[in-house]
Specification:
Blueprint (H helix, E strand, L loop, with lengths): L2 H19 L5 H19 L7 H21 L9 H17 L2 H16 L11
Helix pairs in contact: 1-2, 1-4, 2-3, 2-4, 2-5
């Protein structure tokens, strides 16, 4: 991935987190953050990163809780205590985009599409 594209993607992801942190989240922004979490997981499994699996699960659970709260009362807001986890995972994804070859990024994209098309509840295993 060229540097300009990676920077543009990084900026969009970080702005999504800022909006979510300030209570201006939307379904689209929450989904984009979850996309980063899953792509980061797949890239880490390919050898690009060393974040604990639990950190990915914290982010995943936070998104699930946010979606449930939004369904119940219309409030779109990530739990404050999880923001640091998202910041860490966004930083990881930024470094992955800077270091992983394009074919690995594309492979992670394919794995995400396969996961979304399948029936599994999560691609993240805390025993991995």
């Amino acid at each position: 991935m060229d540097r300009a594209s990676a920077s543009e993607l990084s900026l969009a992801n970080h702005l999504a987190l800022v909006a979510c942190r300030r209570g201006h989240a939307t379904a689209h922004l929450i989904n984009e953050l979850m996309r980063v979490v899953y792509l980061g997981w797949f890239l880490q499994r390919a050898g690009y990163g060393t974040c604990p699996a639990e950190q990915f699960k914290i982010a995943e659970y936070a998104v699930e809780a946010t979606l449930a709260r939004a369904h119940e009362c219309g409030e779109w807001h990530l739990p404050d205590e999880t923001i640091v986890d998202f910041e860490t995972l966004l930083g990881l994804y930024d470094s992955q985009l800077a270091s992983a070859p394009l074919h690995e990024v594309l492979a992670a994209e394919r794995r995400l599409k396969a996961f979304l098309a399948g029936g599994a509840s999560s691609p993240i295993s805390v025993t991995a």
